[in-house]
Specification:
Translation Initiation Factor IF3, 4 helices, 8 strands, alpha+beta, globular, two-stranded antiparallel sheet
Length: 145
């Protein structure tokens, strides 16, 4: 798994790709090379290998990722919260379906109220849902998101 650090590109409708110049002004730096090499990436696999030895150890709470696409998934999501797990729910597939989106929000909100957890939107397409005893601090710790 690689994350790009150095360059930020936007694709216009005309399919012309250009570098965003204001980023260069804000964070500084030089023009990216045309022949990009892997020195601009962080290889997260080597960091994951360091902690893979603990993968078999059970945990009290898990962070689980869910991609919500259908009404039938609500029961499973609610069960995960009742079981004490933290959910990051991707709602990008239902963003245009206001009725289903509101139904999901109301169901998750009811569970959160029941277990005294927390629920918060993350950017445009994700919801963070926490179980009993875990609250989300809405204050940012430095930097811009």
């Amino acid at each position: 798994m690689f994350f790009r650090l150095r360059t930020f590109h936007i694709q216009q409708k005309s399919t012309k790709v250009f570098q965003v110049s204001f980023l260069k002004k804000i964070i500084g730096g030089s023009e990216p090379k045309q022949n990009d090499d892997y020195s601009a990436y962080i290889d997260l696999d080597k960091f994951e290998k360091d902690i893979d030895g603990n993968a078999d150890e059970p945990a009290e709470t898990y962070v689980k990722i869910a991609i919500f696409t259908h009404f039938d998934q609500i029961t499973t999501l609610k069960k995960e919260i009742y079981d004490g797990n933290i959910l990051i729910v991707d709602i990008s597939n239902i963003k245009q379906d206001e009725r289903l989106r509101n139904h999901l929000f109301n169901e998750l909100k009811d569970v959160v109220l029941d277990v005294h957890g927390d629920i918060v939107g993350m950017k445009d397409n994700n919801i963070l849902v926490t179980p009993t005893g875990i609250k989300v601090d809405r204050k940012k710790i430095g930097g811009n998101y």
